[in-house]
Amino acid sequence: MNRFSLPNLGVGLGLRTRHYGHILEHVPAVDWFEIISENYLQTRGRPLSVLDRIAERYPVVMHGVSMSIGSTAPLDHAYLQQLKELRARIGARWVSDHLCWTGVAGKNTHDLLPLPYTEESLRHVVRRIREVQDVLEAPLVLENPSTYLEFEGSSLKEWEFLAALSREADCGLLLDVNNIYVSAFNHGFDPYQYLAGIPFDRVVQLHVSGHTHYGTHIVDTHVGPVIEPVWQLLAAAHQRCGASVLLEWDAEIPSFEQTHAEALRAEQYIGAAS
Amino acid sequence: MSDRLPEPRLEPSQPWAAERASAMPLGLSGVPALAGLGLAPAARPRSLSQLQAWMMDALTGPHASSGLGIVVDGPQLPAAGRLQIYRHAYTARLLECLRDDYPVLAATLGDSRFEELGRRYIGLHPSDSFSLNAWGRHLASACAAPPSLEHAVFYAELAVLEWALVEVTHAQAAAPLDPPELQRIPSEAWSEIRLIASDALRLLSFQYPVNAHYQAYRSEGIVLPLPAATPSTTAVYRRELTLWRMDLTPAMTRVLSALLAGETLGQALARIELDGADAAAVAEAERSVMVWFQAWVTSGFFARVEVGRGAESLPR
Description:
By secondary structure, chain A is of the alpha/beta class. Chain A contains 10 helices and 12 strands. The relative contact order of chain A is 0.15. Chain B is of the alpha+beta class. Helices cover about 45% and strands about 10% of the residues of chain B. Chain B has 11 helices and 7 strands. Chain B has helices at about 50-60, 80-100, 105-110, 110-125, 140-145, 150-170, 180-185, 210-220, 250-260, 265-275, 280-300, and strands at about 10, 195, 200-205, 230-240, 240-250, 300-305, 310-315. In chain B, helix 2 packs across helix 4, helix 3 packs across helix 4 and helix 9 runs antiparallel to helix 10 (about 265-275). The chains are: A alpha/beta, B alpha+beta.
């Protein structure tokens, strides 16, 4: 159990529009769903209507892509307020986003851009996490991103940064083991060394997904089945924390049954630790 | 004048509205092109804010950066190549968003011309919101903006139709007016009622038969040759979770437009005569109008009805 006493929800799926019809019609047995928060903000229409129905039947967790916790632009309090309202509306179990920034100077790239892992960044992000948690009145859960570059000025490893960050800001962690695998290849580190540096009492959720290997680098495309080395990382991480597990599949999304079957493969790797 | 109510077209389920994710766009983030990059070291930012300003420019500005002196070379990719992954993804993600919102315009223009339009749009309208839901709203005007496309009016109208589908997806759909409620309106009051439109209704008038072109692609996957100019009107609306498109005849358009403009039902019906239709056509339209009206009510075009000059809302 994590230090926030957030529950292990089991093995869940990222909620995707392609599966809305199947879920509403068949109400399949799924432990829980994770939504992309922004898909349900700035709308009063169909996405929200579907989400209301799904949240009546399943535990739901909110996963955002636009908090831009690492940006030097001011936090968007209107956005945070909307997150808080959505959380209350659907009874989301927790709210997560990414350790990244998405833009500055009023411009949003809608990408999860990497931070330099420095003392300055650490102080900056810790301050902003506290501000977010004050607004949300709940612990923020931050995910390690896939990254494709590192900065000359970085003085900390990503796992060192995450450990210090979560301790000093008292926030939760969402550990994406596929992102660890992707970044390990792109930057040439040992993914198990990464795991060894993570404070698992703060990990409330684990992500797995597929990716695309381009030879010189790997890109986190969330496509296709999860490869064996990523499942093995999941097993190692889950053994240390017993956290909720979620499959993300965002491109060339197959049928609901196939996607769910892929998620349930996780049980083969975490069963012993559950 | 044929004023049978056209059969509404069900919007295929695919465009549930563009969905955003935390993943990189698929197939658009491969080995980055490095040719033509300047290799001079960039001035090293001294603070996090300087670094982020530099990186925003490197990713979204007109010129790619080598990243030398700021970005570390990777095991297999130099700094410039690593930076290019993000620069490439910035454009790819936004183009993907436009393709999600405008699938038929994209198919009609073809990959190359749509991408050219999209790149121009990205330059004109960089996203300034945490959400991409409304980012593509200006594409119709971009079609017509210089350097305008050939057949810009048609493409702009197609974009208007597709954006209306996005808007209606995100609008709050009213519960349809209940026919028994309407039947409680005293007959002498009918001519004075006003109907308040649902937020999830758009009435679109075009110079071209845009909906027919759209329908051919959505139902058959066929991109029809560009049509000749022929005026058309299409209602785009949502009832509960389902999107619909309904073509309207000129007489229907006159009545519905008047109702949506806030005229009373009596005034709206008078539009048929005022627009100079012949007597037989007017008589037929008057017979048909209650059928249209009933269809519009059950389709959820109206959120509520106001009865009388005091605009008293009918109790629900």
